[in-house]
Amino acid sequence: MKGTLAQENRHVRVRISDEGILLYNDNLSEKTIDTTSLFSTSSNIEMYGRNWIFDIETDLSFRKDIHSDQPYIILIGGLVIDSLFLKSRLTLGM
Q: Would you give the end-to-end CA distance of the chain in angstroms?
């Protein structure tokens, strides 16, 4: 769980409040806070007769990782491999 919940692996910032009282806030450094986060959500959840508000928003590590070229490299590699299989299949007359 440590690796899954570690801040560097989450790419999100979480705040929990109860009727205006802040219960939990990720202690992020100013360098990781994204003032214009790409995605954010707020959920009201009633628990134990209280209304808890969960605010979740992306941080700068999410913005950095979303601009990766890895998906394009995987797509091109898959298309090349598929075309090689198709060519060998047509050559063998299957």
A: 49
